[in-house]
Amino acid sequence: MHVKKHVRTHKIVEGKWTCTYCKEENPGHERNCKHCGAPRGVDDLKLPPEDERKVLTEKELEGFNPNQDWFCENCKTLVSDSLTICPNCSNPRTPESPTYFDIKAEEKKKKEEKRKAEELERGNVKYNKPKASKSLADYFTAEKIFNILKYGGIFAIIVLLIYAVSPKWITLSVESFEWERHITIEKFQTVQESGYYLPENARLLNTIEEPDDDDDDDSWSIREDDEEDNNWWSDSDNSSSNSDDNDSWSSSEDNDWWSSSDDDDWWSSSDDSWDSSDEDSITDLGNGFYDIYDMIRIPVNRFYNKLRHNITYNKTKYVYEIEKWLYDRTITAEGNDHNPYWPKTSDLSKFERISTKTERYYVIGTDPDGKEHKFSLSYSDWESIEIGDEVEFEVSFGSGKIIND
Prior knowledge:
Elements: E1 4-14, E2 16-18, E3 25-27, E4 54-55, H1 58-62, E5 70-72, E6 77-79, H2 100-128, H3 136-139, H4 142-165, E7 168-195, E8 203-211, E9 281-284, E10 289-299, H5 300-309, E11 314-335, E12 352-366, E13 372-377, H6 379-384, E14 390-396, E15 399-404
Antiparallel strand pairs: 1-4, 1-10, 2-3, 5-6, 7-11, 7-12, 7-14, 8-11, 9-10, 12-13, 14-15
């Protein structure tokens, strides 16, 4: 079974914050500085670098409350959602008590209003300043002159290109002709090639086992005796069951946010959706911790076999011989008369064949100003004119056609 999966690795990481008063670094679960007692601001919490992150274990997750903190308006301190009374001032929580994100949104609104007021003030000061008169040199700076020359040159080049490719009408006095005909010959040859599948009619020489680290390649295979083992992660397996021995994965009401609920359909093999915006999703829980999802797109069987059995997957490259028709040579016939012919192919062997035929026909003459021209024509136009004819042509890209007889 080659099912591509979008596996999410889910983890809860504790944040860190630095006290604005004493500069002491504190863990995210501390609402007050452990050194000076100053309260943590809603904008103080930061996600530590990857090598410094503390990830909660399954045992720590058993008693973890994922809900956001509430804000005590009496002592201006964040309080855990697990508490209904502020531990600092004993002020009780009420339905009107703001939450962490309420305060955060209010702080953001205040900062935005302050920024707009400062911009307005700077704009008024700038508006009230008297305007200085500008000289001609201020308008024609070196940069502006350079831009004028640059864009003027680009415009001139575009005009020249349009003129060069536009059709031209030429009246020509025909003076001579040229023609050339080419035939490419293919030969049935034995060649040695290699690839990850063996073509029909190929003769296998040897095989090469190569490590396969490309998860987008379906050329790897899984042992048939692993088919039953591949279900170790299913809901019926004891390793991930909702048993009493593993309460951290239980689906109790206190732990629904972590359980394998209907919202976790990503575990189903029928889900082929993939949203790159979900990759490494980080959510501030509002309680000193972050909820992090790391998205990995891999084949299901391959992932779980590598995880459980430490299996190394290989790709088999085949080295083989095979017969193919390949380019061998080009034979040519050419002349400066009005009698073209194809080069001789009667001497081809039974292992040779004609691949393609190409032909080109040219007319050469002078215009009324005495200027010589040479361009190609279709065979029908080329055949219909003779030396000495005065013919009007429409010429474009070195190719012409008769516009009157």
